[in-house]
Amino acid sequence: MSQNKIHKALRKRILVLDGAMGTMLQRYKFTEEDFRGERFKNWSSPVQGNNDMLSITQPEAIADVHAKYFAAGADIVETNTFSGTTIAMADYGMEEFVYELNYESAKIAKKVAQEFTEKEPEKPRFVAGAMGPTNKTASMSPDVNDPGFRAVSFDELRAAYKRQAEALIDGGVDMLLVETIFDTLNAKAALFAIEELKEERNIDIPVMVSGTITDASGRTLSGQTAEAFLISVGHMPLLSVGFNCALGAEQLTPYLEVVSSRSNFAVSAYPNAGLPNAFGEYDETAEEMAAQIKIYLDKKLINIIGGCCGTTPEHIHAIAELVKDYEPRPLPELNEAETAI
């Protein structure tokens, strides 16, 4: 079972997550027509920028990005499904394609993972089903004149996330990753949906959770500190908890220290390649980023490490080479579920 392999791998070494999908796709310079492909040639509204649909219209490019990250040393790649909910896809009027987008994305990533695992069985490769935060928030009002208003309900989020999780699991992912969490109530809806699905199907799939500290305040967008965020999700049976996006590796360090010292789960981090410049681009080199991540390793803060915005296979390769010489953050003793082979 892949779950047992994941737990075993986490005991042995620091696992490397992939880098940014969006950063890599920008290199292809896909046009509106490329996004549409034959399938959506006559779609009624613009779709350029809807990266998730490229799993249907440009599957070779998605597979190529996954392969580049695995070749760079990644143990885990994320599916191309950051916006793969009915809520996020409503921007393009593509809600009806949500199951297909997630299913195809999972299949593409899993196929590449299996190819690399066959070549290097001593280093099994895994696929994490990416479940992004959506473009709506359950905790706050988007209308300053009506603070009680909510653009989305908990149950709407739960239903949307459940549909996404179903498709990702059907497509063959090894774990689910509820990521870039700026509102923990959104994440709770996702986790509730996953638990519901696990119960209905009588399955157990590892779940990773990754929040976002938005700025130097040390809080998520909905106002939680790192410790409060951990407490809010810590009652769930998680594989890992950690942070990604918004900040560079150096700025993320104190929040990882908080979570690492208080969590019984594995700890993950995938920071941006520094902070964006005046043009919104990321200038931090692979070597610069790896030098900052070395602090995590020296302090034994993490079990899973990767990159978010602005990171490329070059960044992941530098990180993968670095972590080879370090022991992972110690984890609690094996439980029965992990030892049942």
Automatic annotation (TrEMBL):
One of its GO terms (molecular function) is cobalamin binding. GO terms for biological process: homocysteine metabolic process; methylation; tetrahydrofolate metabolic process. The keyword S-adenosyl-L-methionine applies. Zn(2+) binds at residues 245, 308-309. It comes from the Bacteria. Pathway: Amino-acid biosynthesis; L-methionine biosynthesis via de novo pathway; L-methionine from L-homocysteine (MetH route): step 1/1. One of its GO terms (cellular component) is cytosol. It catalyses: (6S)-5-methyl-5,6,7,8-tetrahydrofolate + L-homocysteine = (6S)-5,6,7,8-tetrahydrofolate + L-methionine. Its cofactor is methylcob(III)alamin; Zn(2+). This is Methionine synthase. The lineage of its organism: Bacteria, Pseudomonadati, Bacteroidota, Flavobacteriia, Flavobacteriales.
